[in-house]
Amino acid sequence: MTDPTFAVYGHPPADLAEVADGAVQLSPLVPGSAALEDLDAGSLAGLTMLAPPGTLERRHALALGLRALAPGAPLTVLAPKDRGGSRLARELSGFGCRLDESARRHHRIVRTVRPDTPAGLDEAIADGAPQRLADLGLWTQAGIFSWNRIDPGTALLIETMPALSGRGADLGCGLGVLARAVLASPKVTGLALIDIDRRAVAAARRNVGDPRVTIAWGDARAADAVPDRLDFVVMNPPFHDGGAEDRALGQAFIRRAAAALRPGGTLWLTANAHLPYEATLAEVFREVTQRAAAHGYKIHEARK
């Protein structure tokens, strides 16, 4: 990116913050977006950011944004008060910014400009950068789902499901933990990994080095995102959107899995115990069996 331009990170509510026409999208959760970390220093003429909720992820994004902005360029950052918004002013002040803070609709909105010499950017960028966690033996990054631990639902699914065979897909693959377990079976001939988070896709590429695998950055709910006539699908589907619970996400994943499977193909699904996926499973599969329930999670096997 050579000419200064305007950018947006995420999808800020339109009534809370203005986004310049033609702004370049930078969120890693929007397939096809540009990578904030790849922008040249001083290349942005302005940035509006819906800040991420996690502290390491948020400070990383703020620091990258300040690095990419030209000195004196405007920065607007907002977040719900209970998902990082109450910390924005303190964090931006720590980077050397002078602030104008307001509150509206349970959000904190901070407007500032990029100082000539921001403080502490390198440290915040390094803290939130991709890293290999020795205790997991995996590459990861703050902001990815279950980035610094094995999710208990995934662990229960790995413990419960049998060795699989044929062609399959892992919808919402994350770091690749579930995929690595699936690929332990020599009867698996191919596995498509799909995730909407660019950082997860990058981590999975490093964690799952197997010639049977393809890895794609995309929305698993899209009709063209998943191969068809699969023998199996495995997944730990998301159920939050923008921090709020959205059960329709998991239901959409279930329908996409059913559409991708051949007749007789099998879905292995892990989910939090309170999520009401049974009706959707019964709607699109001919046979549904709960195979395990423990630690607040449940495992379903569904046959098309």
From TrEMBL:
Biological process according to GO: methylation; rRNA processing
Record's keyword annotation contains Plastid: no
SUPFAM superfamilies per record: S-adenosyl-L-methionine-dependent methyltransferases
GO function terms (MF aspect): N-methyltransferase activity; nucleic acid binding; S-adenosylmethionine-dependent methyltransferase activity
Keyword Cytoplasm listed: yes
Annotated keywords: Cytoplasm, Methyltransferase, rRNA processing, S-adenosyl-L-methionine, Transferase
UniProt cross-references to InterPro entries, sorted A to Z: DNA_methylase_N6_adenine_CS, RsmC/RlmG, SAM-dependent_MTases_sf, Small_mtfrase_dom
Domain Methyltransferase small: 137-300
UniProt name for this protein: Ribosomal RNA small subunit methyltransferase C
Organism for this UniProt entry: Methylobacterium frigidaeris
Gene that this polypeptide is encoded by: rsmC
